Structures are given as structure tokens and as C-alpha cells.
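User: Fold this; C-alpha cells only.

Assistant: Input:
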Amino acid sequence: MLGSVACMMYAVRGKSSQVFGPSVYRGDRRRPAIALTFDDGPSESTPQLLRALETSATRATFFQCGANIRRLPEVARAVRDAGHEIGNHSDTHPYFSFQSPAFICHEFQRAQNTIENMLHVTPTYCRAPYGIRWPGFRAMQRELGLTGAMWSVVGRDWRLPAEQIVRRVMAHAENGAIICLHDGRALQARPDISATVAAVEALVPALLTRGFRLETLTEMLCPTH
């Protein structure tokens, strides 16, 4: 019984799990490249993060929620216009545990439609809220042409101060790492992401000093794209 529970937990939340659909959690260990990714946006606080990334001309991947894009279309477009990659983070940021395949498909389909119609880009990567995948994901990914994206390290920036976020991320900084941070808090309006912004302001120069290139997911995973 315990073995079955552990297997299901790995299938649902394991960063390297492929059980419910094709997914990546790191890039090539031979290339000194790292991908910064941000979930839950756009939010009213996203422009602060864009300014922090602009100072070093760093491009990242933003996994955006459809409902947030419809609420803040200009902020979403600012992310795109700054050269960042847009990923699909579902429409309303639900927990997918015990949800039907139809519910899962609807969430990502509506977000995909919003991104395509309002930002005129077509995401190729999706990230499940809370990292929870479930039966129905594989069919959804096949239908929408999406590859799942997990992470090598999550900064826990929704609860930790900047100094601890930096220490946590730098401890896992290695070739091919995918770093998960947040420029929003699910669908919350006006979230406080000051710790994330401060952490990014410290992380970017530290990673560059260590010789890493900071790339979007597509740049890192498909270097000849």
C-alpha cells in the first residue's frame, strides 16, 4: 500500500516523472546555461521584475495564467515585448488532483486561446500549477502541442526572504538548471513580490559571474532553434 502511494506521489509531483505526459526538468548538463522561469503572472507587480531583468538584458520564460492575462493584457504584452518567452500555466491556477480530463483540457485550452488571441504567440511549454499533473495531461498536451516543464529548483519565493531565496537557488545552480520563481500569487491582485525582485537582482549577476548563460527554456532546451 505504501509503495503504491509513493509511486502515485512520484507520478503526480516528481520533477522527472513522465507518467502523465512528456515533461522536462533540466537541460543539457554539458552547456553552461540556466533558465529562469516565473509562474502565476502577469500581475501588477510584474513590471518591477521586468525592470530587474532589463538591467542585465536577461531573457526568461514566464508561465502565465489566462485569467491574469485577460485582467492585465498590457502587462502581459510588456513581458512579450521585452523578449521573454510565454508559457501556459492554465487559466485559473486550480489544483488538478482528482479533476477530470475534460476539466484539465479546458483549463489549458482556454489559457492557450487567450495567449494566442491577445499576445499573438503560441506557447510550446506548459507548467501545471503546484506541479500537480493528473490523468488527462498526456491527452491535453498532445492536443495542444505542449511539453510539460517542471524545474530543477523552486525558490519558494512566496514565503522566503530574498537572502534565503538566493542561497537556495545558488545551491542548485548548475548546467541545465531550470529555476522556478513567481511574478504573481495565483490570481491574487497586487501581490507583494518584493522578495522575488530583490532575489533576482542578486541572482542574475551572481549566475553570470559564475559563467552561466541565462536563456529562455526554448533557447536552453533547443539551442539550434
